[in-house]
Amino acid sequence: MTHPTHGGKRDGAGRPAGSGRIDTSEPLTQTRIPVADKEAVIDFVIQRQARRLARTPSPAELARRYPGTVMLPAADAPRIGVPLFGSGVRAGFPSPADDYVDVVLDLNSYMVDDAPSTFMVRANGDSMTGAHIFNNDVLVVDKGRSPSSGDIVVASVEGEFTVKRLQMDRGRPVLRAENPAYPDIVPTYDQEMVIWGVVTGSLRKF
Fold first, then answer.
1. 56 and 123 belong to one structural domain
2. Where are the coiled-coil regions (predicted)?
């Protein structure tokens, strides 16, 4: 009896796992669709994650939901003018020219670009020390800014809040720590991930 030398399953055949445009750790299924609709379906799946980025409540609503965690800039905060010297700070002897004040800096307008879309949260932990974000820092977050790959964001994954750097990998969002001791957070397609906003600044008192 002879055995066929072709057909059937071949070891190593097919595309390597995770090398396609759509990658997921969940089980996959085959579905037949018209060839003309292939790109539209792929784009729909990729954009499904992106649409989650905008589904966040307003800063005022976040502050009501999470008192003590989310803080808002004062709506009627007065301008606070602080002298800003024109030259940089040196470790050596001061120069008489350093007595010249270049501008008066208002700290409120410097830290907050758009007050209605801005809120603040306090960092907890050391997962972002590589980005100079340390435990107990107050982070300034702009909800009105569209998040892009490479931005530091405040996100919620299945109700757990975190501050991480957003990276897009083949259309999927990845939340990456700035500390090698922490693994990436890669939400699966059935997990709820919401981007609260983009971190635009950090406040720390010594």
1. no
2. none
What would the pLDDT profile of 131-183 be if each residue is shown by its tens digit? 999 999 999 999 888 888 999 999 988 878 899 999 988 778 899 999 999 99
Strands 118-122 and 70-71: antiparallel
Q: pLDDT (tens digit, 9 = 90+) per residue, 32-61? A: 888 887 787 777 766 665 555 545 677 887
pTM of the model: 0.63
Which candidate in 19, 25, 38, 164 is catalytic?
Answer: 164
Report the b/e string of 132-153 with b at 16+ CB within 10 A. Answer: ebeeebebbbbbebebeeebbb
Range of the domain at 150: 107-203
Q: How far apart are CA 16 and CA 18, in angstroms?
A: 6
Please indicate, yes or no, if residue 5 is contained in any of the structural domains.
no
Same domain as 116, residue 182: yes
Helices (H), the chain: 38-52, 59-65, 107-111
Task: Say whether 142 sits in a helix, a strand or coil.
Answer: strand
Q: Which of 25, 58, 109, 127 is catalytic?
A: 127
Is 19 an annotated catalytic residue?
no
